[in-house]
Every structure is written in structure tokens, then in C-alpha cells.
Design goal:
Length: 357
């Protein structure tokens, strides 16, 4: 039996800590371009109550997204104890490529994955670099693609990275700027043969491209005379919240049923985190489908201290738990883990993983 197994993991969390007081001097505008006259303290307090975000990390100006993606990749390769020349595919989930820290210009060529391969010094011409542009669910989709490549016999080792520098893609006059942050996480997904099934055992992806396509887009600043980038993250927060609560729980249930795993056998849910209120609500609705209370330690959280790090949220969280650096959370042999994400485009995806270390 061919299994797709996470052999090693790594992360890069920027050193620059940005707490909520950083935004006290910001001028925020509403969707109609009208300045919000409420005091900064009131805006920030409400924001923290909803999201639970206290601080986030921003990358230093000396680094680009491809740099921090490389840092996480190097750690994952070392952790996996493999020769980098045996990597068959490098899949980099990202959304904006490299963003210049001054001009905010987006650079997508060469591709992020090609830059990472170059930075790693991989000489193997048959190591193929792929960029995964899939919104926040990009890293999960990268794992699903890597699993399919391994199962199809086309790969032995797949390096899957999630990396974004969203602090350079936000409108400083939009309150949602306080949500986004920077970071990178990576894993090596490897082929293992055994008599039992473990690693990735089931997966599911749903893509909604009707009116949902416009819930998360790029657009000009809410402040009409802003002279920065004219391509900033524009999010319809209420629409995203309602979409996620309406669709994610059933999608997770479908994946768990495909894996033939009873709900009481699930050990952890590693869920992408845009804001804590939404995550708590999605998990509560998921367990309600089984008429079962939510276990106390089922949903590890990083959003409070790291913010919404997009595609890197889940691999960073996985690495923290794997290294026993996220509170009391840890993985045990034969644990069933559910990885899931929802985000731009709009996409929902998930996979069930049987842990074997």
C-alpha cells in the first residue's frame, strides 16, 4: 500500500511583533470611502473582541516572500533528513508572489517555486516547481496535489510550502488590514509503502465561483487620494463569515465520512484561521452535525498571536505542534487529524491524515 506521509516540517515566523496599538494612528474608511470617526481605541477594541487577534508578525524589509519560503523549506528538508536532490516537485502556495517592500509592486516572474528551487541550490532538472494560487486554502490544496502525484507513481518526495507577506498587500485605510500577517510553513510529503493505510487517507475540495468569487478581491484603497498600491486585499467580511458557516461544516463532514473515521476518533482539527470567532463557530456547527459536544483541545489556535497568515497558517501550526511548541497540544501515534481551509475564490478544502511517528 502506497502512503503519502509528512516526513518533515519547518516554519519561518518573522521576528517583528506588531501589537494592536500599532494601528492607533491609522485613519480608517468604510466601504463608501467615508472616514470612520470613531476613536482608534474603540475600533481596535471591537476588532480584538471579534477576531481575538492581539498581535501579528511582519517580515523585515530585507526579505521577500521567496526568501522566507526558502527558510521554512530548508528546515523541513533538514527535519525530513532527505537529500534535496531527491525532491520531485516543489509546490509553493502563495497569493501575491514577491512584493517589493517600498513600491508594493507584485512580482510573479520567475515563479515563487522556481525562486525557491534556485535559493535551495537544487540542481536536479527533473525537480519541477509549481505555484499554487488558490487563496488561503492553497497549502491544503498543495498537499492534495502532492498526494495525488505520489499515488500516481510520479513522485517520491514533494516539498509543499505555504508562504505570504500579506502586510505588503493591505490597504492601511481598511480595518481588515489589522487581520493579515506574514509567515511561511513547509513540509516534505513522502512516499512510504506499508501493509496499512496511514498519512493522507481522504480529501475533498469545493470551488465556488459564482457571486462568491467577489467576496475576496484586489482593489484600490478605501481612501480616494491614497498614493500607495492600487491593488490591495478587499474583503467582504460579513459575506465571507456567512459563507464559511453555511458551507464549511458539511464539507468537513463529507471528508471525514470518506475517510470512514468516526467523529469521536478525531484528535485535532487544524483549521485555517482568519479570525477566532469564525473558527469557533465553524467547529461548533461541524460537531452539531453529529449532535456531539466540541472536545476541549480539538482546535489549536495561533491567530491570537500570529494573525491571519494565509497559506502558511496550517503548516506553521502543524510544525509548532510537531515540535511541541504550541501549549499542551501534541500529536500521538495513530491520531486522526483533519486539516481544512476556506478562502479566496471561494474555495473550501480538507484532508484527513493518520499520524504515524
Amino acid at each position: 500500500m502506497i502512503n503519502s506521509v509528512i516526513k518533515g516540517s519547518g516554519r519561518y515566523i518573522p521576528e517583528k511583533v506588531i501589537d494592536n496599538s500599532y494601528f492607533l494612528g491609522y485613519e480608517f474608511y468604510d466601504e463608501n470611502g467615508v472616514r470612520i470617526e470613531k476613536p482608534g481605541e474603540e475600533i481596535i477594541k471591537k476588532f480584538q473582541e471579534i477576531t481575538e487577534i492581539e498581535e501579528r508578525r511582519y517580515v523585515d524589509d530585507q526579505y521577500l516572500n521567496s526568501d522566507i519560503a526558502t527558510f521554512a523549506a530548508q528546515k523541513a528538508i533538514e527535519d525530513a533528513q532527505i537529500d534535496k536532490e531527491t525532491i520531485d516537485y516543489i509546490i509553493v502556495a502563495q497569493n501575491f508572489g514577491d512584493i517589493d517592500p517600498v513600491s508594493r509592486q507584485i512580482d510573479m516572474m520567475p515563479s515563487m517555486s522556481s525562486k525557491v528551487k534556485h535559493n535551495l541550490g537544487i540542481k536536479n532538472l527533473k525537480c519541477r516547481p509549481y505555484d499554487m494560487i488558490f487563496g488561503c486554502p492553497g497549502w491544503v490544496e498543495g498537499i492534495i496535489l502532492g498526494h495525488q502525484l505520489i499515488q500516481g507513481g510520479n513522485a517520491k518526495n514533494v516539498l509543499v510550502i505555504g508562504s505570504d507577506t500579506l502586510s505588503r498587500a493591505v490597504d492601511p485605510h481598511d480595518r481588515t488590514a489589522m487581520i493579515f500577517a506574514d509567515g511561511s510553513g513547509a513540509v516534505v510529503l513522502s512516499r512510504e509503502e506499508a501493509d496499512e493505510k496511514y498519512g493522507v487517507i481522504a480529501y475533498n475540495t469545493l470551488s465556488y465561483t459564482g457571486e462568491e468569487l467577489h467576496y475576496l478581491v484586489n482593489g484600490p484603497s478605501l481612501k480616494s487620494d491614497y498614493v500607495g498600491s492600487n491593488k490591495n486585499i478587499r474583503m467582504k467580511g460579513r459575506k465571507v463569515y456567512e459563507f464559511a458557516l453555511r458551507n464549511v461544516p458539511n464539507a468537513l463532514k463529507e471528508t471525514l465520512e470518506d475517510a470512514k473515521v468516526p467523529i469521536d476518533k478525531l484528535s485535532k482539527i487544524l483549521l485555517h484561521q482568519a479570525n477566532a470567532k469564525m473558527d469557533h463557530a465553524m467547529i461548533e456547527r461541524f460537531y452539531k452535525l453529529y449532535d456531539t459536544p466540541v472536545p476541549e483541545t480539538i482546535d489549536p489556535m495561533t491567530v491570537q498571536k500570529l494573525g491571519n497568515t494565509s497559506v502558511s497558517t496550517i503548516p506553521i501550526m502543524y510544525d509548532l505542534i510537531e515540535k511541541k511548541e504550541l501549549g499542551n497540544h501534541e500529536f500521538h501515534k495513530d491520531d486522526y487529524l483533519l486539516f481544512a481551509s476556506v478562502g479566496a475564490s471561494m474555495n473550501i478544502n480538507s484532508f484527513v491524515y493518520k499520524y504515524k511517528k
